[in-house]
Amino acid sequence: MTNIAIGVIGAGLIGRKHLAKIAEHPDFDLAGIADVNAEQVAAQNPAARVFADYRAMLDETRPDAVIIASPNQLHAENGIECARRGIHILIEKPVTDTLASANALISAVKAAGIQSLVGHHRRHHRQVATLRSLLNERQIGDLVGVSAIWAVYKPDPYFKVAPWRTQAGGGPVLINLIHEIDFLRFSVGEIATVGAVVSNRQRGFAVEDTAGVLIEFENGAIGTFFASDSAVSPWTTEQGVGESPEFPFSGESSYRFMGSRGALEFPNLVQWAQAGDAPSWNEPIQARRIHAPTLDPYVAQLDHFRDLILGKAASLQPVEDGARTLIATLAVAEAAATGQRIDLRERCATLLPPQPERKAS
C-alpha cells in the first residue's frame, strides 16, 4: 500500500502531538506543515517542509489528507479550502467556532465528496467502545441517568501565558466541557435539552470557573455534570484513563451510569448488580470489574482516519456530527447566561440535516 501523504495546519500544542504520532505511524508520510510561526516551526522540524501560508502548503505539496489544528476560528476556512482541493480532513475540536461557519463547512465537505473526521479523540478509547456495548446491550437495564464530574485546579501560569482564558469563552464550559458533551452524546444518545448555572467566585475572572449542568437526553435519561477548573480532585476522564501526561494518573472513575437493573462506573468499568431477578433496595449489590485494554487514542484516531480515506470504514464523527456537539456546548453557555432551559432539537433539525441512528461498534 502506498503511504498517505498528510499535511498539518497549525503546530501548536495539539498540532505537535499530531506530528509526533504521524512520525511514528507506518501508513502516513508528512507532506508539510503550515503555521504562521514558520521559522520557529521549521527549526523544531528540520526534516519537514514548512509554510507560513497554509494554502501554499496545500498547493505545493498536494497532500491526500490534512489535520487541521489551527485556532478554532480558522477551522471552517481551512476545511473549506481543503474541500475545494479534494483533500480529506481530520479537524480538531470544536469543529468550528460558530454554527454559521459549521454549516458552511458541512456544505463544502458534502459538495466535494471528501471524508471528514472531527478530533474528539475519546471516541477511540476501547473503554468507550466497551461502555457503549454494555449500555446498548442493556446490561444495567434501562438507562435512568448519569452523573459526572470534571474538576481540576488550573495553575496561575495557565492564565498568564494566555490572558484570553480569563475572558468569555476561555472557561471550562467551552474549553473542557465540550469533550464531555461529545462523550455523553456518543455513549448515551442525543441531548434534548440543557440547563446550567455558572460561577466565577473562586477566581473572579470575567469567565466562569465552575459550572453545573442539567441534561435531558432524547431517550428519557437525565444527566448532571459538575465542571470546575478551580477545584482539586482525582475525577476527570484524563486522570482516570491516563491519556495525557499533563494529567497525572488517578485511576478513578468520574462517571456513574445508573440503570433499572444496575450501574456502571467509567472509565474503571465497574459494573454493579444484584443477584435476584427483581431489583430491590433490600438486596445487596455487588461489583464486577470489566477489563478493556488501554491504548493511545491519538494513534487509534489516525488508524481510523487511514481506514476512512481508504474506504474501509465510515467516519466515527463527520463534521455534521461535530456540529451537533458544538450546538449542545454553546447551549450550555446560553442556558447559564439566560437562566433558561434550552431545547436543542429544533436547532439541530433546522441547522443540520438529520442523521441516521448510530449503532455501537
UniProtKB/TrEMBL annotation:
Domain Gfo/Idh/MocA-like oxidoreductase N-terminal residue range list: 5-120
InterPro entries per the UniProt record, alphabetical: Gfo/Idh/MocA-like_OxRdtase_N, Gfo/Idh/MocA_Oxidoreductases, GFO_IDH_MocA-like_dom, NAD(P)-bd_dom_sf
Pfam families (UniProt xref): GFO_IDH_MocA (PF01408), GFO_IDH_MocA_C3 (PF22725)
Domain GFO/IDH/MocA-like oxidoreductase: 129-264
Name by which UniProt lists this protein: Gfo/Idh/MocA family protein
Organism this protein belongs to: Bosea vestrisii
